[in-house]
Amino acid sequence: MMKKPDEVFNTVLTIAGESVRLFPFDISSAPRSAMGKLVGNGRDDSDSVVAAMTLLFSRY
Length: 60
Prior knowledge:
Elements: E1 12-15, E2 18-21, H1 24-27, H2 46-59
Antiparallel strand pairs: 1-2
């Protein structure tokens, strides 16, 4: 059963017009070679990403 996502830790980003949820624990576990074609970036949502990473390092 999936828990409800944390609104800061699992913030929603918009990439190439699609809403995607950030899962910081997965960032380091997926090799770049496993990713598909680059379609955008999270630059516009950088404050949300920084808040999620700050929560990651302060809580865990």
